[in-house]
Specification:
Length: 129
């Protein structure tokens, strides 16, 4: 996964594809490995973090029926937290674009998802003056 930091988009795409391919046969192993890698590399640049998060999303979507319930819950929560953190970090420079995206998740008459609210709150805190 260290190769995700390679600046060549083709290398990054190959890493994403490899993670997804491995996730087809060993989804829990790949999800746990990605989760552990992201935890150990909390300073990983966000574009590179996004590659791993997208691979995790694809693995979850493609193997949701195969995942153990506890693994699915833990991974989805960790993935959502990591994605929220990415949005907050990007929002420190591009607050208008991130806010525009987050606000699309607010629908009249529907209670927003917990992580949407958390992201919204963390954006306001990180950009407060």
């Amino acid at each position: 996964m260290d190769a995700t930091t390679d600046k060549d988009p083709l290398v990054q795409e190959q890493i994403y594809n490899a993670l997804c391919y491995l996730g087809e046969s060993e989804p829990e192993e790949i999800l746990n490995s990605c989760d552990e890698y992201l935890r150990q590399h909390d300073k990983l640049a966000y574009p590179h973090r996004v590659i791993i998060l997208k691979a995790m999303e694809t693995v979850v979507k493609n193997s949701i029926a195969l995942l153990d319930k506890s693994t699915a819950k833990e991974v989805v929560q960790d993935w959502q937290q990591a994605a929220s953190n990415v949005l907050v970090a990007v929002g420190q420079r591009f607050i208008n674009k991130v806010m525009e995206e987050v606000l699309t998740k607010f629908q009249p008459g529907i209670l927003p998802h917990y992580f949407v609210m958390q992201t919204f709150a963390n954006l306001s805190v990180s950009n407060g003056e």
